[in-house]
Structure formats: C-alpha cells, structure tokens
Amino acid sequence: MSAGQTVVSASANQGFVEFADVEKSYDGRSFAVTRMNLAVARGEFLTLLGPSGSGKTTTLNMLAGFERPTHGTITLEGQPVDRLPPYQRNIGMVFQNYALFPHMTVEENVGFPLSVRQVSKADIAARVGRALDMVRLKQFGDRRPTQLSGGQQQRVALARALVFQPNLVLMDEPLGALDKKLREHMQLEIKQIHTMLGVTIVYVTHDQSEALTMSDRVAVFNNGGIAQLGSPDDLYNTPQSSFVASFIGENNTLEGVVERVSGGECRVRLNGGGEINALAVGVTQGAACHVAVRPERLSLTAAAGGGNALAATVDGRIYLGDHLRLLARLANDQVLTVKVGPEATMANGETVTVSCAPNDCRAFPADAGTGGAIPKQGKMQ
Amino acid sequence: MSAFQPSEIDRPTLARDRSAADADLKSVSAALRRAELGDRMRSLLLAAPLLVLLALSFGIPIVLLLSRAVYDPTIADALPKTTAALAGWNGQGLPGDDAFAALAADLKENQVKGTAYELAKSLNARLPGARSQVLKTVRKLESADGQAALDTMKSVPFWSVPSTWPVIQSGTSSLTSFYLLSALDLRWNADGGIERVPPEQAIFIQVFLRTFFVAASVTLATLILGFPLAYLIANVPKGLAAILTVAVLLPFWTSILVRTAAWTVLLQKFGLVNDFLLLIGVTSDRLDLMYSRIGLVIAMTHIQLPFTLLPIYSVMRTIPPSQMKAAYSLGARPFTAFRRIYIPQVFPGVMAGCMLTFILCLGYYITPALIGGAGDQLISNFIANYVNVELNWEMAAALSFILLVFTLALFGIFARVLGLDRLKLV
Lengths: 381, 426
Hints:
Shape of chain A: elongated
Number of helices of chain A: 9
Distance between the termini of chain A: 25 Å
CATH class of the largest domain in chain B: Mainly Alpha
CATH architecture of the largest domain in chain A: 3-Layer(aba) Sandwich
Largest interface: A-B, 26 and 19 residues
Helix content of chain B: over 70%
Number of strands of chain A: 19
Oligomer: heterodimer
C-alpha cells in the first residue's frame, strides 16, 4: 500500500474524525490550539508532527476526551463527541511512558479493557492470547510489566490499546523513551499492525523521520495550528512555508529580497550578494524572503543552462560512509551544506561553484509560519 | 532472540574447553564471594555504631525489664527457711508447724536485715491485703522466740487462711507466671489449673480491648480524613502541595503535651467547641467532650493524622496521572478505574499508614491521661501507674510484655497478608 493510494482513498471517505474550528485555551488569554480544521479518514495513519508546545498533544488529548475544546466541535464517525467522557469514546490510546498497571500481570493488563466491558472470562483469555501473539509476547503473559524491557512494555501497551478492537487508536510519542535501534524496529512493527488491522491511527511525535517513515499523511504543527497537512512526499518536496521546509528534513536557507515574480518563478537577490532563480511560494515583489534548498539538490558541478550558480569555498568535509557532506562558504559568509558522493575530492579551502536548478529552490515569505525562530529539533535526524 | 547453538564445533574440543571453563568459573565465583564478603563486612562496620546503640539502649533494657514479668526472686530470697520447709508440701489445707516456725524465723531475719517492707510489698502484689498482715506479724514477732513465735503466728488469722500458703509457696520459686496471668485476668486455682479471676477483679482484658478499640477508631478516623487530603496534595500543583504539606506537618513542630493541652481548651464544657455547637444550634445542651471517649478520639486523631497521611501520600505521588487516563481510555468508568487501578496501587501505603497509627495509638499515655475520663484510660496508663505509683515493676513488665506480643502478632498478620516488601513507610 503506497502512500499515494491511501491519500486518494482517504479523500473518498473524509471525515471519520473531524475537527471543526476547534480551539483550546488554558488561561483564557493564549491559545494552545487555534482554528483547528482537520479530517482523518478511516484506516488512515495520520501523524501530528511539531516541536514541543505546538499544540499536537493538546489536539490528541481533546480527541481522547481528556481535554475539552474551548470552542468548536470534534466528531467521530459523524457523531459529536464533545460531551462524551473518555471511557465512552472507544478509543485506544498508547502513552509515552506506557502507563501499564504495575500491580497487574501482562495478561491482566491486556485483559483490562475487556473485563471492564463485561466480556466473559473465556473470551478474554482467547482475545488476550491473540493480542499478545500479535506483539510476540505470548510467553510473557504472567510477568509483571516491571520485569519487561522498555520495548516489550510498549508492545504490551500496544496490545492493550488494540485488544478491544477500537476503530481509532491514539499514540502519544509512544517510542520516545526507546533507543534509536529499538525505535526504528518498533516503527516497522506498528506500521505492520496498522496495515494488518486496518485501524485508524493518530500518532503524535516530534521526530520528523519517524513521521515520514510511518504516516500516510502528516500534519505539521506550529504555534497551535497546522502549518501544512500532506503526504510525507508532499511535505518533503513541496513545503508551503519556511517552517515546514526546515522542520522536515534538512535544508539550507538563504535570505534575500524578491526582485521580480513571473509565472511560478521569481528572481531573488541574496543578502550579501548573488542572485538566484527560485519557485515562488506566496512571495511578492520587493518583500524579504527565505529560499530553501535541500543539500542533495545542490551540486558542485557546473549547472545545466538556466541553473543557479554561486561561488564558494570548501570549509569542511563530513564523511558519512555512503555520502559526503561538504560545507561550502559563500561570499556573504553563509555556509551551505552540500551532499555529494563519497568519491568527491574537494579539499578544504578549495574554490568551488555551488549550483542548483531553480525548481529545487523554494522562496517563502520571510515572516510566514515561523515567526522568525526555526526550532532546532528534528532538523538533522 | 534464539540462543546460540554451538552445533558445528567438534565435540572433544568442546568438552575440554568446557571443563577448563568450569574450573575458571569456580575460581571466579570464589573470588567474587571473597570480594562480597569484604563489602559485607564494611557495611556491617558502618552500621555497627547504630547496632551497638540499639542493643545498649533498646534491646538490653527491654529484655531486662520484660524479664521481671516472669523472674521475681524477692520472696525466695527473703524466705529461704520457708522455701525449704514448703518444698515437700502438697498445697492442700495448711502446712505443718515446721513451715509456720520457718516463716516466723524468716520474718524475724527480714526485720533484722530491714527487708521486711520489701517482702510485704511483694507478697501484697500477689495477695492483696498481705502487706499490713506481714508488717503486723513482724512487729508481734519482735519479742517472741521458739514456741512463742509459733503461737504468735497462729494468733494472726491471716496465716491460718488456706489460700495464703499456696501464694507463699508459689513465691518461693523465682520464676513465676503469676504476673503474666494477672495481666490477662487469669490465675492459678487451688487444683493447679488456670481460671479466670472473679469479674470484680478482672480489669486488664477490658483495658486491652478498650485500647485496641480506641486505636482502631483513631486509625479509621485518620484514614477517612487523611486519604482525600493525601490525594489532594498528590494532585495539586507543586506550590499548593508544599503549603498543604506544611499545614499537615505543622502539628509535628509542637510537643504532644502542648497539642493535648490545646484540645483541653477547645473541648471543655465551656470551651470553644461547645460554644460553637450551641451557636449553630446543633445541640441545645453543652456536651461532655472532655474526659470522654469522643474527646480522646478527636485529640488522638489530630495528633496521628500525619502518620497515616504521609505514607499514603508518598505512594500516591508515585502514581503517574497517565495511569488513570489509560484506564479511562480503555473504557473504565471513574469509579471502576479508582477501584481497580488506583486503590490497589495505594493499598501498601494505606496499610503502612494505618499500621503506623494503630501501633502508635496502642502506646498513648499523655493524651488519655489528660483528656480521657476514668473509663478511658488505656493500657499505657496502667503500666505507668504500676511503674510510678504502685512501684510494682513486675506487673508493669507483664502488661508491657502482653502488649508487645499483641502488637507483634498484629504486625506479623499485616506482614503476612501484604508482604513486608510492599509496605512503603515513607
């Protein structure tokens, strides 16, 4: 199942979960979430991605029923759930710290949602067995959660959130406490379970690579709102703001002023000298802008006709095995990261020409989205 | 996660390697034991000053004091001749004249040595009224010898009452079960069996029951007051929690005597509590809150509240809010989540707090003395009375011993039911 297909089928039955003009304020003065409009399709894997404090966890908590929107409506399968307490929403939830019940065995933990639903003992045993089988923990059923490793505990939490067959599962940074290797392994496992069960998942993370790996669609949060909603491919290749461009993947940002806009393209005069052509993403003539270009779109070979070319000196080499990162210092002292093959021979101090196609450069208004500050986290994963 | 299978390695080599490895392992584990022994000795050395202090100031005095409940050589030391004369007596009726003569000689001896009063007191503890009889006989014996002494003995009716001599005989043995039995309102009867003392003499069982009842009432009251408060402190923002904790701990900073005195001011007939109750019209008459069970329980509850609350709070603090959120999201209603997720996790703290308060309440002394009425004196008041007023250390030791046994038994039951490792005191 490719991401592209899912999005098409998603748009066909929009509105399994819908946020309509949802706002949340804790103090009556500032908003944790503003003007949230979001539709999640049945069976979709949607990730809420953003730096801490961007409103993604508040959004999740409102959906789970732990927080009430100050304004607006959330509907689940067409029914407004604003007045529904969490225990009547039938939504599975996985927490960052697992939230397993330490006084119960693994089996009792997984059986808990069934036993509060008055399922018969025999039925509980069978369904708990199947759920533990799914997360490959069958032999650990009679252990206590504290006797398991972090990864195993999170798999128990996963089984517990899925065992009562909820239509919607929420995950709040479920892999945040695991080390990198285990995290990558669990990402695949969660993805497999999602494909197998066809359950709708809303997933919160601040790790952009996790979001890109797992999601059908990603909602990038910033300052309490959605900065951009789209497939990982969309977000990476056609970011709509400087914030999204720098938050998703790695990016070089060049500051400048728009000289002229013609069609979809614009000519930008860079601060400190040099001019380049770039795609115009909402920029107007004469305004300050940020031009974003990915390291792998820059090259040190002469550009084909019409390409941008900037003179630079090599300021550092970072060897990464399969490729090499060169730090190229421009005339205005700005340093660009250029991703080249590991066979590249340029030495420090050598003069080079950095070139790129105008289609790979995206010019955004300088003040849109970010408010100036670009969060560090998630940039260099 | 499959185990490593060394199937491709040729067997003889493997076996040789293994025996060498086993030998290595043995020497390693021996070295490890040596290293651990050193560690253990070091930690024992660090704890040694405390252990010595505990043994000197706690262990030895308790053993010495409690031993007085069963070891009382006063009578045997004072009456060596009588001891010898009664050795063959069967305990029926009155002993022969030789015993009377021996007792007379012993009494005279005590008068000379100046230990007559001590003997009289010790006999009196076992046989009420014996003190004056002994002292009277000693005075009469001063100028009598031989037959005259025997006649003097016979002339005091006390010595011809059959129930006197078995007590004297039991006193000639240094080891005695008399005080322990008395502490349980029991005694030896003439046939050598154990029987209950007559109802008008029985006091201690009732006092023990009263003590346990008051302790249980106070424990329950502190739990009812403390549990919600602990929950509040564990779940409000940090700043407010600190203020509330200080408010709870504040009583700790004043002495128990001051707090008790404060309650006498509040609870007395024309005190603030009665004024207030009259003002809001709850009662039409002033209540007897002072010198009553209810006043005692109120004051003890106030003093004990932090002891119950703090262990509960310390456990509640460790339960992350996501636990309850998880329970709700899994479909548990608030009451179900509370009952099945929250209560089982705070239970060790609740038990620890309640046990602490219950056991401390068993030893209350000042508060019942000042606030309780005559019918509200707890076992500690009786122990104190025996030590301070009656100077009957044997009885005090016996009551202390019984109290200790009851307390340890309760602790044992708690520990058995809960598992000691699950008790979280603070």
